[in-house]
Amino acid sequence: MKPKIVFVINYFYPDYASTGQLLTELCLHIQKDFHIIVIAAQPEDMNADNSLGTRFTNDRLQDIEIIRIRLPKQDKKNKWSRLRYIAAYFFYANLLVLRQRNINILYTISTPPILGGFIGSIGKFFKRAKHIYNIQDFNPEQAEAVSFMKNKSLYRIAKWVDTLNCKYADHIITVGHDMQETLYKRFANRAITANTVINNWTDEQEIVPLPKKHPRVQEFIHTHGWQNKFIVMYSGNMGLYYDLENLIQITKELAHFEDMKFVFIGDGAVKAEMEAFVSSNRLNNVAFLPFQLKSDLKFSLNAADVHLVVNQKGIKGVSVPSKIYGVMAAGKPILGVLEEGSEACRLIQASGCGVVAEPQDYTAVTKKLTYLYKLKRDELAGMGMKGREYLDQHLKREQSLDKYRSLLLSI
Questions:
Q1: What's this model's pTM, rounded to 2 decimal places?
Q2: Cα(140)–Cα(160) distance, rounded to whole angstroms?
Q3: Domain spanning 4-201+396-410 has what CATH number?
Q4: 3-state secondary structure 301-313
Q5: Distant-in-sequence, close-in-space partners of 403: CB < 8 Å, separation ≥ 6
Q6: How far apart, in whole angstroms, are the C-alpha atoms of residue 218 and residue 212?
Q7: What integer pLDDT is reported at residue 78 of this predicted model?
């Protein structure tokens, strides 16, 4: 009989937000080795009115059983709305875990903050299962870096709770070496829970380097009127942890380069503020687009001459911007606005696929981007391809998935 593993992950197929796609691919990879049950939030677009319908629905993806939780509609810009959503998820996810029988492994992630790990701790205690805690982001450190709340005592309590989650877990997975260092700091000189670093990934067979003259890349560029433009692209979440609301200022400083176009693709909490800056300064060198279809992503990524991979100051050791893997797969050069020693910075430096400036040093960011702009185009292209070569050697999807499989089979 196959061991039973229960994943408690708020995003799952067909919802590819956040870690949804990564965890879906992981479950598909190990489904022949385990009896898998996934407890996940119901995607909002599966029910036009989330206030109606049954609380739990059963679904299936190949051999994977899925239990979906209907939750209150969430306004991500409203703290109380987010807290209501998180509280409901926490309550019902715990209820579903406690209903499960004969669990061998309980797998949780660090979302929602603190509570994701706490679900694992509660489940381990009551179900006597092994708990695997996958930390994609360290909280409250991430929230503290952007001053999400003013109350310092709440941060201390939250950190204490999540450190207990880490102590009580049977194995911890972090997604960057800098995050592993943060884990060690949490434990100070005390015995630390067994842990492993496994990088996130992208589908490097789907995201491949394409020349700008490729018909679909050309179509994307021509549709938006960006012919003969040097395109600087940010593609991803425009949330609180990237300093984009301040980084947008460099577009004004570089407006004298008439053929330079800044393209921001995605959505998030600070997008409106960024758009307001562009509008108030009457900048015509900036464009905003919504998230692209997954099937079109390789064409939009390859339209760029340079990609921005950025994090807010204080995020080193707390989170890794997963977008770096897609950019490296596309073979595009990177301007990293990242702290020295962070995982993404380490990947850029180890591969030679770009240049890095410190967060909040906007003068340095401007200088680094100007340097890339003035490089010969074949030199710039060669720099980007170094990222693809490094990814093919060290960061392939199958490599990370096999590490997960080996680890879970050993528990």
A1: 0.92
A2: 10
A3: 3.40.50.2000
A4: HCCCCEEEEECCC
A5: 196, 198
A6: 6
A7: 75
